[in-house]
Amino acid sequence: MKSIPQKERPRLVVMLTYNDLTVPNAEEVFELCRNSAALYWGMKEKPLPLERMKALFARMKECGKRTVLEVVGYDEASGLAGVEIAAACGVDYMMGTKYHPAVAECCRKHGIGYMPFIGTPQGRPSVLTGEIEEIVNEGRHAVAEGVFGVDLLGYRYTGNPVELNSAVVAGVGASVCLAGSIDSYTRLDEVKRANPWAFTIGSAFFDNKFDGTICEQIDKVVAYIDQ
Description:
Elements: E1 11-15, E2 17-18, E3 21-22, H1 26-33, E4 40-44, H2 50-62, E5 66-71, H3 76-89, E6 93-98, H4 101-109, E7 113-117, E8 120-122, E9 127-129, H5 132-144, E10 149-152, H6 161-171, E11 175-178, H7 185-194, E12 198-201, H8 203-206, H9 214-226
Parallel strand pairs: 1-4, 1-12, 4-5, 5-6, 6-7, 10-11, 11-12
Antiparallel strand pairs: 2-3, 8-9
Helix pairs in contact: 3-4, 5-6, 6-7
C-alpha cells in the first residue's frame, strides 16, 4: 500500500476499545452504529477470541468499512503474532507494535498497511516517552523502510503533545494516525490544526465525552472535523 497524501480532513477511526482492550460487546456496538458517519473501524488484538474477531471484521467489511487492528505489543514476537491475527481477519491496516523488518515483510506479504508505533511506548494503556526529534527521525526511518505510515500516541506523550503531533505530521513524510486519549473538542481542534491522516477514538465514546449515544458522538466528531 502507498501512503495517502495528507491533504484531506483527518479520518476518524472508531476503536471498539476501552483502556486499550476491545470491549466485550463490540459486535453489539458496531451493529448499533454501522450506519453512522465513520468509515474506519477497529479493535485491539485482545481479549476477543480470534473467531469473534474474524466474524466482526468480516461484518465491518460487509458494511463497506475500512478495518484496523491495533496491536499493543513492542517486541518482534508480539508484532509477528499481531500480523497473524491481522492476516486471518483480512484487515486493511495494522497499527501498533514497534517497527521490525520481519513484521513489515509479513504485512507486505498479506497486503496490510503497516503503521508501527514510534517513540518509546510502555505499558497498557500505553504511555509514550522520547525526545521529539528522535521520534520524528524514527518515523522517517520506518517510512524509508516502506511502511504505510506511523502510529503516534501523541496524547499519551509525557512531554508536549501538541508540539510532538505537529512535528511528526510535518516531518515523517507519510500517513500519521494520532492514537489514544482524544477526549475533548479542544483536542479535536488540535487534531485539525496538526492535520494527520487519521485519529482514533475509543474510550472517550464509552465515557460519553462528546455527549450522546455512541452513534451520536461519532457523527458529532465527524461533523466537527469536517467543518
